[in-house]
Amino acid sequence: MPWLVLLRNAWRVTQKTLTRPTLIILRIKTLSIVILIVLGVLLVFGPQFWARHVLKRYSVEQDHFPGTGGELARHLLDKQGLHNVQVEATDSGDHYDPLAKCVRLSPANLKGKSLTAIAVAAHEVGHAIQDQTGYVPLKTRTNLVQIAQRTEKIASMVMLVMPVVMLVTRSPTAGLVLFVAGLGGFALSTLVHLVTLPVEWDASFGRALPLLRDGQYISGQEQRAARRILKACALTYVAGSLASLFNLWRWMAILRRR
């Protein structure tokens, strides 16, 4: 490829013009950057690939389950006295909506009889129980999400108009103020991700697993598999948090250079 040839030639010219100690330092810095990028990619995308693998592994239909994921969710909700909480299908990913009081499951988990469907349904019911008991971290996350959805849009707009403002006003200070304001919006989004982790962990291991175990809905062997499924789901939120932190760190690095 022509661009590869240009890069190789540029590197050869650089090697000839730099002294040996400087060249060694440059190579170490380049290697460090490459290692950081690779580690960042593994930390962010590795958990997602592993989670997909685990969820797919246990998504095989099991005839011995008496009902589907949706039917189990309805049963568990009624058993907890949460008759006002609805169970619906969604194409936006499995979740509990605390504002609409609704457990929403993907079609595969709503109508399926796989262990993944059972575990995910119990997890979302766990969120409904959190809501019923006034679990503070869930309330905090719900409030932060509503604020973050608005501020993130504003932050994106601020970042877009910042170069224009700097060009018109010719004032670096104005651009810096806008940049910090935009960074604040991204920081709030990162905070939402961090608050989400304990909420998800409690819904899985403080609510869902005890429900499945105490109600004898799954066997001992299936409990171990369900734990892996719920850990895999939690890891997707870990990956989201890491990605958000990485994005925040990137913008802060830009701010330091300014």
Polypeptide structure, described:
There is one protein chain. This protein is mainly α. It has one domain. 79% of the residues lie in helices and 4% in strands. It is built from eight helices and three strands; from the N terminus they run αααβββααααα. The chain has helices at 2-17, 20-57, 69-79, 107-111, 115-133, 136-169, 172-214, 220-257; strands at residues 86-89, 95-97, 102-105. It has a three-stranded mixed beta sheet with strand order 1-3-2. α3 runs parallel beside α5 (115-133), α5 packs across α7 and α7 packs antiparallel against α8. The longest helix has 43 residues, at 172-214. The chain is globular.
User: Any idea what the radius of gyration is?
Assistant: 24 Å
Query: Which H/E pattern describes the elements?
Result: HHHEEEHHHHH
- Tally of structural domains: 1
Give the strand order, joined by hyphens, for the main sheet. Answer: 1-3-2
Question: Low-confidence stretches at least 5 residues in length (pLDDT < 50)?
Answer: none
Number of β-strand runs: 3
**Helix count?**
8
CA-based shape: globular
Largest sheet: 3 strands, mixed
Gap between N and C termini: 35 Å
Quaternary structure = single chain
User: What is the typical, i.e. mean, pLDDT?
Assistant: 80
- Helix content range of the residues, please? over 70%
Portion in beta strands: under 5%
Structural class label: mainly alpha
